[in-house]
Amino acid sequence: MEKIASFTVNHLTLLPGVYVSRKDTVGKEVLTTFDLRMTAPNREPVMNTAEMHTIEHLAATYLRNDESIKDKVIYFGPMGCRTGFYLILAGDYTSKEVLPVVTKTYEFIRDFEGEVPGAAPRDCGNYLDMNLPMANYLAKQYLDRALYPADDSNLIYPE
């Protein structure tokens, strides 16, 4: 079998950032999948599931309520390797084009206080597995390390 595209990325040099992982055409619509890489793969500790679960709830809620993008959001969810998240949008986008909304999303997560949306037994299959303080911390770290200083080194996959 051929390797899928995401397994051909050099994870030994990949930095935290926002990358176009792939573009697929469904009918006449392009779907752009973004790799929101929050940690340096194989060089930094992975994120724990509780904080990833919290980030997932907060980001999905924010994105699906943001007027500039809500009608384009197909999916926001964790990578199995626990180094980041995937964001799938309807439309043909670049990393630079989505950087502002990704930045606003992670500012929302960094600053969020209170009850995590959907963190209730009726709404979520594992509602107790949440860690808001760590999600706040990781969002701040991602903003400071990757989003605010973003340039081609963390917006375009390395060769």
- The rough form would be described as globular
Helix content: 25-40%
Return Rg in Å.
15 Å
* Structural class determined from secondary elements: alpha+beta
Strand order of the largest sheet: 1-2-4-3
Q: Count of helices? A: 3
Residue stretches low in confidence (pLDDT < 50, at least 5 long) are: none
Would you list the SSEs in sequence order as H and E? Answer: EEHEEHH
Structural notes for this entry:
The chain has 159 residues and is of the alpha+beta class. 30% of the residues lie in helices and 20% in strands. The chain contains three helices and four strands. The protein has a four-stranded antiparallel β-sheet. β1 (17-26) and β2 (29-37) form a beta hairpin. The two termini are 22 Å apart. The mean pLDDT is 96.
What key attributes describe this structure?
alpha+beta, 159 residues, 4 strands, globular, 30% helix
Question: Nutshell version of this structure?
Answer:
This protein has 159 residues and is α+β, with helices and mostly antiparallel strands. 30% of the residues lie in helices and 20% in strands. A 4-stranded antiparallel β-sheet has the order 1-2-4-3.
Topology of helices and strands:
Layout: E1 17-26, E2 29-37, H1 49-63, E3 73-78, E4 84-90, H2 95-111, H3 132-147
Antiparallel strand pairs: 1-2, 2-4, 3-4
Helix pairs in contact: 1-2, 1-3, 2-3
